[in-house]
Amino acid sequence: MPPTKRRGETQLTCEEANKSRLVTLCRWVVETINGRFKRDFKIFRYRVFNRALPSTMTDYKIAAALINAFQEPYEDSQQFVDIINRNMHKPNLLADYVIEHNLNRHRAAFVRLEKNDQTLEDFPRLSQEELILFAVGTYHCKIARTYCSEHIKQTGVYEIEVYRHPVLVTINGESGVLIRCRIQSRHVRNRTYYTYILYRRKTGINAISEHYCSCIHGKRTLGSCAHIMSVLYYMGWARYQDDFNHPGYTLEDVIIDLENQ
């Protein structure tokens, strides 16, 4: 079971957040295997009646044999294993810095990024493969794409707002550019999260040295939360794409705005 917040706390600790990510990594395999049964064998999508119970286990064994015989099995990615071993017990130094300096309460001038905006042009460009490795899986990358689609309007304005003046910060002997972003929660309308990313002027995903978010899983160092991934996804990849289509864009014309007719 993934850990939960302690009484009076607003966030999981770094260790608890990393453990929660490990649980979801293991649980993902179980859920996708269950999905294969229901996707490929219609009988398992519905309730099982009492008369069918004696043969249900036999049906599952036959279905499992067919899946094992004709579908590609899951394999452990050595790159993911190395990332887990390297970051599982890594402390979140940026979280300590933000909390110590009380940066969440500091007022800041934010600027909205347009598609061709040259703000933070030294931010590293990332590939989708690097984003998947950083997130230790595809799940948070898909959520990041959804966040981007919610913030990108027809005018091409990206409404995730970035701190206007990046700050040069030194943590653990390494200097980098600290940016602060403000992101609207997709679950609670009146809740806003602050994400912090410390990057160095390098290329690739190794340029992202530290990250922190004010959400419940924000102290995680094994991967990151969806809010941080949304910033990386847009700043490092999506804003350079000419054919970026957000999911569900075909549904925008289903509801007609009669007031503007």
Q: Mind telling me the C-alpha Rg?
A: 22 Å
**Low-confidence sequence ranges:** none
Write the H/E string, N to C: HHHHEHHEEEEEH
Q: Mean pLDDT, rounded to whole units? A: 83
Distance between the ends: 52 Å
Shape: globular
Kindly state the number of beta strands: 6
The main pleated sheet reads as: 6 strands, antiparallel
Broad structural category = alpha+beta
- Strand content of the residues, in percent? 15-25%
DSSP helix count? 7
Helix residue percentage? 25-40%
Oligomer: single chain
Count of discrete structural domains:
2
Task: Give a description of the structure.
- This protein is of the alpha+beta class and 261 residues long.
- It has 2 domains: 28-76, no CATH class; 80-242, no CATH class.
- 36% of the residues lie in helices and 16% in strands.
- The protein contains 7 helices and 6 strands; from the N terminus they run ααααβααβββββα.
- The chain has helices spanning 14-40, 53-70, 78-87, 93-100, 128-135, 139-151, 226-236; strands at 110-114, 157-163, 167-171, 174-184, 192-199, 208-213.
- Strands 1, 2, 3, 4, 5 and 6 form a 6-stranded antiparallel β-sheet that branches.
- The model has no long low-confidence stretch (mean pLDDT 83).
Descriptors:
six-stranded antiparallel sheet; 261 residues; alpha+beta; 2 domains
Topology at a glance:
Layout: H1 14-40, H2 53-70, H3 78-87, H4 93-100, E1 110-114, H5 128-135, H6 139-151, E2 157-163, E3 167-171, E4 174-184, E5 192-199, E6 208-213, H7 226-236
Antiparallel strand pairs: 1-2, 2-4, 3-4, 4-5, 5-6
Helix pairs in contact: 6-7
